Fold this sequence. Notes:
Elements: H1 20-48, H2 51-79, H3 93-121, H4 128-149, E1 161-162, E2 171-172, H5 184-213, H6 218-245, H7 255-264, E3 269-279, E4 282-291, H8 297-303, E5 310-319, E6 327-331
Amino acid sequence: MPATSIHSASHSHVFLGDGYRRNERRVWLVIALTVSMMVIEIVAGTIYGSMALVADGLHMSTHAAAMLITVGAYVFARKHARNPRFTFGTGKLGDLAAFASAVILALVALLIAYESMLRLASPVPISFGQAISVAFVGLAVNLASAWLLKDDNHHHHHQGHDQGDHGHAEHHDHAVALAGGRDNNLGAAYLHVLADALTSVLAIAALGLGSFYGWIWLDPAMGIVGALVIARWSWGLVRDAGAVLLDYVPEGEDLPDEIREAIEADGDRITDLHVWQVGPGHHAAIVSIATARPRPLETYRAKLAHIHDLSHLSVEVERLGSVGATAAMSAGSR
Length: 334
């Protein structure tokens, strides 16, 4: 049977996720807080001789740079969201920025560990009272920043419509999956300020014990502990963001199974299935179906309409025993 082309009208490929502009504004605010505290801690740590404070200030400077990457990704993705040269939109740019931030976080951990080991080898006097005061201020700033960056969205919204013209079954389905997906770009910024908060807590603990027992060595030792924890967080972020960039489907993701169950419920068989994330809360899928009784393309679309995270869909239907596809449906951004 000859192939019939079913094409879609122009449709949106904006897969930026919910609260995109809000997240961008929050990151700008956190950058301002971070830079201010960075200057205070580096100066205070140098004056009072606290390696924990200097280390905290140094890695706050790299966190500020990393968050500039975060906000830069938001701005670029927003401005180019409708650029047709980005075939599936710019929703994954945040994951690219998160991967870069994770690398910076790993370098921060190495820097803290290196500086701490140098201070272990060559201890210096510490002004404990002043250093503890500054560390508490740093912790307050870090906790405020973490609160600003906390992602607490868990709802969906979608809308759709169909068109037909001149005997061609055209379909595009516009939907915006608001939230419902992890924003690794915002998560990267959150981890950076969380690392700051951890370093502040360790600094307070080390300085407090050091002031009571005279354990000057505890200050840089806590720096090494903090470096190990931050390195672990960095690896987790590399893994999560890298998985999205490589179109890896996590083990806990049941979207492929949902698609198979919906399509194969009436005896049709999926011969090829590709599912990948195109933005926070947005997934795309290409589904190839073999069946002895091809149904109208709208039927297959309707079977998958309940899957809110499925924002871009392409379906190809092939009659069993024939050569080539008998129909192909492309569903645009939902």
